[in-house]
């Protein structure tokens, strides 16, 4: 029997369920260190969704450390070819969970922790939290029974920390299903407030984003991180197999486009009139540049005019002015991603 304090590593999104799993363990004297995994697909600390919420709020309130870990290229490679497939869109939920647990396992062993906890709830999510899938994730993460799901633990087989006497079964809960009523009540008991809405967060679950990501994987063999950043903003058009246009929808998006310019890109903007920024990436022919100018003009205040002048600059070439007719709705739909 260990004489030191029992220690767990927690997968922590900052959302309600993962926070409650930590608080349940801490309420019984378990030391918890949390890991928040970051990706290019919405799991960051810059928005208010469950997947992307600020982890420091609950951590500061209840006194547990949080380690941030970006999954980078590992996650991108997994999204390209998930072993266990996608959900409704480009969300590889099973492979995502397995990858995070394998990464957490390395940290568990490095810090001499006893087991890993998650906020997973039996039957809450149809792809990744049904009983058979939870068992599959257990096996594929190679944790040897050291994976504990405190919110549904009484409904699941005993894990190694329970069999080793590190925790007791009556510490665990028997929550299941999609309702968050019991979690909300439990949050009130702990004094947990300000937690994010459980819906959303992962861009891979969104239909429009998934279409743009599929297009990127189809036409760009080795996308850069700035390519993924661009997917989050603007209207996207595939003008040719090696040429994509992104049009900003507002001033903040225009600024994001300008910040993500890289060598070879061209920037388009209608002159002498309110206009969005267009970012043209790839190897465009002149006809592609002219088409990009027409689409840019279509989203400017010149959309009802017969002609507009569009400025094109970048790629080390002299600034170019093109007079074009704003693109028709048919043209927009033909090339829109």
What does this 3D model show about the protein?
The protein is built from 12 helices and 11 strands. The chain is an alpha/beta fold and 337 residues long. The protein has a 6-stranded antiparallel sheet, sandwiched between helices. Strands 3-2-1-4-5 form a 5-stranded parallel sheet, sandwiched between helices. The protein is elongated, with a radius of gyration of 24 Å. The model has no long low-confidence stretch (mean pLDDT 93).
List the helices and strands and how they pair.
Layout (H helix, E strand, L loop, with lengths): L6 E5 L4 H11 L4 E8 L17 H7 L3 E5 L1 H9 L12 H18 L4 E3 L13 H10 L6 E2 L11 H4 L17 H10 L16 H13 L5 H7 L3 E6 L2 E5 L3 H9 L6 E5 L7 E5 L3 H13 L9 E7 L2 E8 L4 H7 L2
Parallel strand pairs: 1-2, 1-4, 2-3, 4-5
Antiparallel strand pairs: 6-7, 7-9, 8-9, 8-10, 10-11
Helix pairs in contact: 1-7, 4-5
Observed structural traits:
337 residues, alpha/beta, Rossmann fold, 2 domains, six-stranded antiparallel beta sheet, five-stranded parallel beta sheet, elongated
Mean pLDDT: 93
Q: SS-based structural class?
A: alpha/beta
Strand elements, count? 11
CATH architecture of the largest domain: 3-Layer(aba) Sandwich
Sequence of strands across the biggest β-sheet: 6-7-9-8-10-11
Approximately how much beta-strand content do the residues carry?
Answer: 15-25%
> What profile does the largest beta sheet have?
6 strands, antiparallel
- Helical fraction equals 25-40%
The CATH superfamily of the largest domain is identified as HUPs
Element-level helix/strand string: EHEHEHHEHEHHHHEEHEEHEEH
- Per CATH, the class of the largest domain reads Alpha Beta
Unreliable stretches: none
